[in-house]
Design goal:
- Keywords: Iron, Iron-sulfur, Lyase, Metal-binding, Transit peptide, Tricarboxylic acid cycle.
- This is Aconitate hydratase A.
- Pathway: Carbohydrate metabolism; tricarboxylic acid cycle; isocitrate from oxaloacetate: step 2/2.
- Its EC number is 4.2.1.3.
- The structure is a single chain.
- By secondary structure, the protein is an alpha/beta fold.
- It folds into 3 domains: 307 residues, Aconitase, domain 3, CATH 3.30.499; 163 residues, 2-Layer Sandwich (Aconitase, domain 3); 198 residues, Aconitase, domain 4, CATH 3.20.19.10.
- The protein contains 25 helices and 30 strands.
- The chain has a 7-stranded mixed beta barrel. A 6-stranded mixed beta sheet has the order 6-5-2-3-4-21, with helices on both faces.
- Helix 23 links the parallel strand 26 and strand 27.
- Helix 1 packs parallel to helix 12.
- The chain is globular.
- 56% of the residues are buried.
- The structure holds FE3-S4 cluster.
- FE3-S4 cluster binds next to helix 6.
Length: 755
C-alpha cells in the first residue's frame, strides 16, 4: 500500500551504476548528497562534473508529497495536464486545515464541517489520478512520510518547506512550489541549482536533558536563518550514528529554518531499526545491500574540509538544552541563568502560559515518550502544571501506539489537551484568543520549528520559544521560562522541594507500532470514472480553464503598475487571510499586486486606470482592462518575484490578463513560473530604461513574431504626449519554453502532446 519496494530497488540499481561513474568524472570521493543527486539526474548517467552553486540541473525525483493547503492549486493545475495518472508516486495529506481548540474528537468534527469541500475535492482528485490520500486526522505530512515513504538514498519533493524532514531517513527531500510539483506529476523534469554542501560533524553523544532538537537549535545559532541558503547540510560522525532516526528527522526538519535546500544523514543502524519498526523490513534489506552508496565515501568524513564548502563541528557531549527565540529560531539561549538574565534585559515575560508539543518537527513516538517521562515525574512527585500543555501527535500510528502504551494517559492526568494529529497551533490553527490582535503579552514554549510573531496564535505579543519536547514539558510544569531542570527545585503540593530526574524514553515502541485506521485511502486502479466535484458557487475552489495563448501580437498594451523596489511573491499575491482562497483563482486574484508599491505615488494598491483616468486598486483596474480586451504590462525593479515560490504570483496576473512582466532582474523561480504560465518575463537590456516608463504609457511589441532563444525583443513605448522610446528587452526562454508561450502555458502544451 504505502510504498513500492520495486521502485526503491530500481533507485538502488541506478545508484550502483551512476555513483561510480560520477566519482570518476568528479575525480574524487563523493559525499552522500552528491551520490543521491548524481543518481537522480533526469538525463540518466552522469556525463560531466556539476558545479556547486552554479549549474542548473534537471532531476528526476522518486516521490512527491503535498499538504492540503498547497495541494489545492497544484492539483487544480495537474488536472489541466490531460493525464490519467500522476507520473511519479504522489500523496496528499490533510493536516493544515484543522484547528486546535477543544481536543481531537471535537476539533476534527469541526474541521470536517468547515473544510469538507476542500477535503472532498482533494480526496476525489487523488482517487481519480492515482494519488495516495491521507484523511484529516491521519497525521502531519512529514511524520506520515517518514513512517511510510521516506527511504535512504531517495529523492523527494514536496509542496511544503518542511519536506526536508525526510532527510532523517537519508533522503534528499526538498520543499518546492506547486508549479514544480505539477511538472513532476505530469512527467517533466525538476530543475534545481546544484547546491553547495555544508558538512556538520557531530562528535560525542547526547545525554541527560540534551536532545536532537538542541543540535539543530545550536546549528541555527551558528549558521543563522540565512546560513544554509543554497546548500545541503550533511550530518556525519559518531554523534550522528548514535541518534535515533526520528531525532535525525527533527534536525533535518529545522534545516528549513536556516534556509538550507535540505539536510541529510547517511544510512545507519538507527534508520534500519526505524524501517523495520515501521513495517518496512524489505526496504531495510534492500538498503543494506547497497549500504556503501547510502553514505559518503570514507575519505570524505575523514577529511571533510576537502569535500564540503563549509564544515561545522559540534560535540554533543558538551551541548546543553537550549531555548531559541522569541520571534526568530536562531536566537539561542541556554536554560536557567542565561535565560533569566536575557529575559530581564529584554523584557520577555518570565511566566510561561502554554507548552505545546507536536508539529512535524517533534511529534514522534520517542518525542512523546520522553516528554511523558517528565509528565509522569510531575504526577509522582506531586507537582501541578503551572502552564497549560497541548499535544499534537504526529500521526494516527504514533497516537494509537502512544495511547496503547499509556503515554497519552500520563499527559491527560496532568490535564494536558490532546489535539488532533495535525499541524494545529504550528500553522496558527489554534483558537487561543477571540481577539488575538489585542491579546496580552505572554510567553509560550513549544517544540515546533517556527516562532515568528503571530505564527501560533495570531497574537503579536506572544513570545514563542522553541525547545525539545522534554524541556517544553518541564518548563510548562514549572511555569517559568528561566527554569533549569538540571539544577532548579520546584515546590510540590505538600510544600516539599522536588527536582526532576533526567528524561527517559523509548526510541521506538517496545511492543511495536500499532494502528487501527491509519487514515490512508488508496486511489482507484482506474480512476477514469471518478467524478471531481466543485460547486459552482464555491468560494474556496474553482476548476481552472486553460489559458488562451497571448499570441505574437501585443499592441496597445497599457501599463498596469510600475513597481518600486522590492516586489516579492508576497507583494504580488499576499498571504494571510487570502490563503483561504488559494484553490479559487478568481477570488484570490483580488489580492493581485495589492502589496506592490506604485513607483509614481509610492502607495500600495493605488494605480491610475488609463481608461478612466481615476486612481484605485490594482485588481480593479486590471479587471477593467481585461473587460475592455486590453492587454497590460507590469514593470518591476531588481530581483522581482523573490520569496516563496508560490505559483499564484504568476497565475493571478496571467488570469487577469497581464501579458508581460518587464523588470531589471528576476528571482529565477518566479521567472520560470511566469514562463510556465505562458507569459512574457523579460528584462531591460539597459536597466536605466526602467526610468523611461511613465504612468500613462502604452506598449507595442515590434518583433514578438520573431521570438527565438537568445534574441532580444524590441518594444515601442508610447508616452501620453505622443513621444516614443524604443526599448530593448532580453529574455532567457529556450525553445521548449517558447513553445509553452505559444501554447498558452506549459500544461497546455503537455495536454496537446498527450492528445
Ligand atoms: Fe505543519 Fe507546522 Fe510542519 S504547519 S507541516 S507542523 S511546520
Amino acid at each position: 500500500m504505502a510504498f513500492d519496494i520495486d521502485m526503491i530497488k530500481g533507485v538502488y540499481t541506478k545508484m550502483a551504476e551512476r555513483v561510480d561513474i560520477a566519482r570518476d568524472i568528479v575525480g574524487k570521493p563523493l559525499t552522500l548528497s552528491e551520490k543521491i543527486l548524481y543518481s537522480h539526474l533526469w538525463d540518466g548517467k552522469p556525463t560531466k562534473a556539476l558545479v556547486r552553486g552554479k549549474d542548473y540541473v534537471d532531476f528526476a525525483p522518486d516521490r512527491i508529497a503535498c499538504q492540503d493547503a498547497t495541494a489545492q492549486m497544484a492539483l487544480l493545475q495537474f488536472m489541466q495536464a490531460g493525464k490519467s495518472k500522476v507520473a511519479v508516486p504522489t500523496t496528499v495529506h490533510c493536516d493544515h486545515l484543522i484547528q486546535a481548540k477543544e481536543g481531537a474528537a471535537k476539533d476534527l468534527v469541526h474541521a470536517n464541517n468547515v473544510s469538507s469541500e476542500v477535503f472532498n475535492f482533494l480526496e476525489s482528485v487523488s482517487n481519480k489520478y492515482g494519488i495516495g490520500f491521507w484523511k484529516p486526522g491521519a497525521g502531519i505530512i512529514h511524520q506520515v512520510v517518514l513512517e511510510n515513504y521516506a527511504f535512504p538514498g531517495g529523492m523527494m519533493i514536496g509542496t511544503d518547506s518542511h519536506t526536508v524532514n525526510a532527510g532523517g531517513l537519508g533522503m534528499i527531500a526538498i520543499g518546492v512550489g506547486g508549479a514544480d510539483a505539477v511538472d513532476v506529476m505530469a512527467g517533466m523534469a525538476w530543475e534545481l541549482k546544484f547546491p553547495k554542501l555544508i558538512g556538520v560533524k557531530l562528535t560525542g553523544k547526547l545525554s541527560g536533558w540534551t536532545a536532537p532538537k538542541d543540535v539543530i537549535l545550536k546549528v541555527a545559532e551558528i549558521l543563522t536563518v540565512k546560513g544554509g541558503t543554497g546548500a545541503i547540510v550533511e550530518y556525519f560522525g559518531p554523534g550522528a550514528t548514535s541518534m535515533s532516526c526520528t531525532g535525525k528527522g527533527t534536525i533535518c526538519n529545522m534545516g528549513a529554518e536556516i534556509g538550507a535546500t535540505t539536510s541529510t544523514f547517511g544510512y545507519d543502524e538507527s534508520m534500519e531499526r526505524y524501517l523495520r519498526s515501521t513495517d518496512r523490513a524489505d526496504v531495510a534489506d534492500a538498503a543494506n545491500a547497497v549500504k556503501t552508496y547510502l553514505t559518503a565515501d570514507a575519505e570524505v568524513y575523514e577529511n571533510p574540509e576537502n569535500y564540503f564548502d563549509q564544515v561545522i563541528e559540534i560535540n554533543l557531549s558538551e551541548l546543553g538544552p537550549l531555548l531559541n527565540g522569541p520571534f526568530t529560531p536562531d536566537l539561542s539561549t541556554t536554560v536557567g541563568e542565561e535565560m533569566s538574565e536575557k529575559a530581564k534585559a529584554n523584557d520577555w515575560p518570565l511566566a510561561v502560559e502554554w507548552g505545546l508539543i507536536g508539529s512535524c518537527t517533534n511529534s514522534s513516538y520517542e518525542d512523546l515518550s520522553r516528554a511523558s517521562s517528565i509528565a509522569q515525574q510531575a504526577l509522582d512527585k506531586g507537582l501541578k502544571m503551572k502552564a497549560e500543555l497541548g499535544i499534537n501527535p504526529g500521526s494516527e500510528q504514533v497516537r494509537y501506539t502512544a495511547e496503547r502504551d499509556g503515554i497519552l494517559d500520563v499527559f491527560e492526568r496532568l490535564d494536558a489537551k490532546i489535539f488532533t494529529n495535525a499541524c494545529g497551533p504550528c500553522i496558527g490553527q489554534w483558537a487561543r484568543y477571540s481577539d488575538p490582535k489585542n491579546a496580552p503579552k505572554n510567553s509560550i514554549v513549544h517544540s515546533f520549528n517556527r516562532n515568528f510573531a503571530k505564527r501560533a496564535d495570531g497574537n503579536p505579543n506572544t513570545h514563542a520559544f522553541v525547545a525539545s519536547p522534554e524541556l517544553t514539558a518541564a518548563i510548562a510544569i514549572s511555569g517559568r521560562l528561566d527554569f533549569n531542570p538540571l539544577t532548579d527545585k520546584l515546590i510540590n503540593e505538600n510544600g516539599e522541594e522536588v527536582m526532576f530526574d533526567e528524561p527517559t524514553g523509548w526510541e521506538l515502541p517496545p511492543k511495536g507500532f500499532e494502528v487501527q485506521d491509519n487514515g490512508y485511502l488508496a486511489p482507484e486502479e482506474d480512476g477514469s470514472n471518478v467524478q471531481v466535484n466543485v460547486a459552482d458557487d464555491s468560494e474556496r475552489l474553482q476548476l481552472l480553464t486553460p489559458f488562451e495563448p497571448i499570441g505574437d501580437t501585443i499592441t496597445g498594451a497599457k501599463l498596469l503598475i510600475k513597481a518600486l523596489g522590492k516586489c516579492t511573491t508576497d507583494h504580488i499575491s499576499m498571504a494571510g487571510p487570502w490563503l483561504r482562497f488559494r484553490g479559487h483563482l478568481d477570488n484570490i486574484a483580488n489580492n493581485t499586486f495589492i502589496g506592490a508599491v506604485n513607483a509614481f505615488n509610492e502607495k500600495t494598491n493605488f494605480v491610475k486606470n488609463q481608461l478612466t483616468g481615476e486612481y484605485g486598486g490594482v485588481p480593479d483596474a486590471q479587471r477593467e482592462y481585461k473587460k475592455a480586451g486590453i492587454k497590460t504590462v507590469v514593470i518591476g525593479d531588481h530581483n522581482y518575484g523573490e520569496g516563496s515560490s508560490r505559483e499564484h504570483a504568476a497565475m493571478q496576473p496571467r488570469h487577469l490578463g497581464v501579458a508581460a512582466v518587464i523588470v531589471k532582474s528576476f528571482a529565477r523561480i518566479h521567472e520560470t513560473n511566469l514562463k510556465k504560465q505562458g507569459m512574457l518575463g523579460l528584462t531591460f537590456a539597459n536597466e536605466n530604461d526602467y526610468d523611461l516608463i511613465q504612468e500613462d504609457d502604452t506598449f507595442n511589441f515590434l518583433d514578438l513574431n520573431e521570438f527565438t532563444p537568445g534574441k532580444q525583443l524590441t518594444l515601442e513605448v508610447v508616452h501620453a504626449d505622443g513621444s516614443k522610446d524604443i526599448v530593448k528587452v532580453n529574455h532567457t526562454y529556450n525553445e521548449a519554453q517558447i513553445e509553452w508561450f505559444k501554447a498558452g502555458s506549459a500544461l497546455n502544451l503537455i495536454k496537446l502532446q498527450n492528445a
